[in-house]
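Feature request disguised as a bug: please show the residue count (261) next to Prepilin leader peptidase/N-methyltransferase in the output. Example input:
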Amino acid sequence: MTGAVIAFAGLLGLAVGSFLNVVVWRVPRGESVVHPPSACPRCGHAIRSRDNVPVVSWLLLHGRCRDCDNPISARYPWVEATTGVLFALTAWFTGVSWVLPALLYLVAIAVALALIDIDTKRLPDAIVLPSYAVGLVLLTLASWNPGGEPDWAALTRALIGAAALFTVYFVMIIVYPAGIGFGDVKLAGVLGLYLGWFGWGSLLIGWFAAFLLGGVYAVGLIVAGRAGRKSGIPFGPWMLLGALVGIAVGEQVWAWYLDVL
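Example output, currently without the count:
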C-alpha cells in the first residue's frame, strides 16, 4: 500500500511540477495561471496536449518547440522531475497519513517560491498569503486524524509556531531591514505553522538551518568571487530548505543536542 502511495505521489508531482512551471512564469507578472493555455514563449503557438506530458514530451521533442524549433529551456523538465521526486520522498517520509496532503502542498509552494525568489527576489503574496489558510485547514485535518487518535496539541503548537516565527522575523526586519524583506516575514509565519505542528525541536532546527545553510552558501559565493559582502542573496529558498530540514530531522537533531548538553 505504501509503495502504491509513493508511486502515485511521484506521478502527481510530475503533473504538479508542470503546473508550477506556469505559476513561476505567470504569477510574478500578475497573469492568470489558468488562462490562456500554455504556449511557446517565442512563437506563441499553443502547446498541444501530446506535447504537454511532463518530462517525456521535452525528451521526445529533443528540447525544442514543435512549431518554431526554438529551444525549450531544460528548466521545465527539471522542475517537473524534481517535484515528482520530492512528492515521492514526502510520501515515503509520512507513509499513508493525513499529514501527507499538508506536506505535499508545502513542497509544491516551496518549489514555486524558491524559483520565483531566485528569479525576481520576491515572494508573491498571491502564493504566500493563501498558504496560511490552506496550511491551517490541512494541518487541522492531520490533527483530527479521522479513523485514528486526534492530536490537537500539534495544532496548538502549529498556531504558536506561526506566531513565534512571524514575530522573530518581524523583529529582525526592524533591527536590520537590509538583511531580509517583508516577504520573508510573511513566509516565516507559514513555515512556523508547519514546523510547530511537528514539534518544538523542528521549529528551532528549521529556523536555525535556514541561516546556517544560507550563510554557508553566501560564504561560498564570496570565496568563489561571485558575490561581495553587500550582495543581495534571496533568502526565501534557504528558509524553505531549512523548514524541510526541520520537518525531516528536527526532532532527532534537537533530542541529540539536548543529550549532549
